[in-house]
Amino acid sequence: MAAKRAGALNPGVQRREVWAWAMYDFANSGYTTVVITAVFNAYFVAVVAGSADWASFAWSAALAVSYVAIMLTAPVLGAYADLYGAKKRLLLATTLGCVLGTAALGFVGPGDLALAFVLVAVSNFFFGSGENLIAAFLPELARGRAMGKVSGWGWGLGYLGGLLVLGLALVHVERVQAAGGEAQDFVPGVMLITAGMFALCALPTFLLLKERAVPRPLAEGLVRDAFRRVGGSLAHARRYRDLARFLLCIVFYQAGIQAVIALAAVYAQEAMHFDTRQTLQLILVVNITAAVGALAFGQVQDRLGHRRAIALTLVGWLVMVGLAYTATEPGRFWLAANVAGLCLGASQSAGRALVGYLSPRSHRAEFFGLWGLAVKLSSILGPMTYGTAAWASGGDHRLAMLFTGAYFVVGLLILAGVDVERGRRAALRSAG
Asked: Dihedral angle at the C-alpha atoms of 57, 186, 103, 48, nearest 10 degrees?
């Protein structure tokens, strides 16, 4: 087994480095799971905004602001990281920003809409920027044909990290509720747990992961150089047309995924009338299925072929939307949620691996910046579509969920035009 793992890695890469890289997924998944998916989103809608019809829209708008900021900065940060070998330094800065922003969310109480809006936007900006930077290390660690497998290790460990933090949060919530406390009493502690675990579990990444990019001498006009490099990549987009097409595909299918991630707890509480404890238990189990999906799919997606693997997950997402829309009792909704978990782990792992497979070596951080740009655009489209539909329909969350299913259909149609091997040959021919 060790020999097989070693064969998946590039020369000079040690297994402990891959573990350290994957530990960042373990560390930051607590933020996504607790703040975006399970606890703070429902708290924002129900307590901070008082369950108003526009509450889901306001939550989606806070996320949208952060994603617009990421879209404006990600390509430049990626180009800067490539030019000056700065991925690890930038990753440290974004990690600190997200940890501090998450801890500050504990100060948000009922009616503190402006404070909640700003802190969600700030913390999520740092989270998303760090997500782009850690992904850019993947092609340095794994061989081309093994990127799916190594990416799966990262995503699988990440869901286990989310599971751990969610479990700790559930223990805290049950203890506070047993003493008669309400959401405003347990949310501060949950935010501190999430921030502290992020900081602690990210330490192996900064201690063991190497920065392999060779920096160039620092010069004036760094931002101008970064924009010029991004502009050069866009000008040569025809050389990487399959990568460009897949990035467009990501925008659409990730829009559906991001809506589910950002509003899962809201849907559970508003449409299915789950309480906080039931919602946490649901998301905890979903994290297990997501970890299984990422780890299992990582082992088979390289053999299935990247395009076929992603298509399979998108069909699974459509099944999930149908189950959630028609669910009137907890059993069917639990089934829908676990189908979502399996598809989430698989599709996230497969998408990141295919971007690495199609990216030219000398522009990897930059193209992972464009991958982040595509995901962040989808993170605006999906939740805002859901929030707008819920607001316009007077709080009909089932209808809002149904609207998100269209994004998976469009993603499948675009994916059909991606020629993976042609895209790989274009990346390997690139000398730039």
From this structure: 30
11 CB burial (10 A radius; 0-12, 13-18, 19+):
exposed
Q: Which residues contact 318 (CB under 8 A, 6 or more apart)?
A: 405, 408, 409
Q: How far apart are CA 108 and CA 190, in angstroms?
A: 12
CA angle in degrees (0–180, nearest 5) for 57-260-190: 80
- Alpha-carbon gap, residue 167 to 383, rounded angstroms: 26
- Domains defined for the chain, CATH in brackets: 13-207+228-429 (1.20.1250.20)
Q: Note the Cα 55 to chain centre separation in Å.
A: 23
Q: How far is residue 3 CA from its own chain's centroid?
A: 31
Chain segment 102-159, per-residue pLDDT in tens: 999 999 999 999 999 999 999 999 999 998 889 888 888 887 667 767 777 777 788 7
Tokens of 83: 């030019």
Say whether pTM exceeds 0.85: no
Q: 60-84: per-residue pLDDT in tens?
A: 999 999 999 988 888 788 777 877 7
Distance CA 28, CA 22 (A): 10
Nearest to 369 by CA among 61, 85, 25, 130: 130
> For residue 147, what are the contacts with CB-CB under 8 A and spacing of at least 6?
138, 139, 302, 353, 356, 357
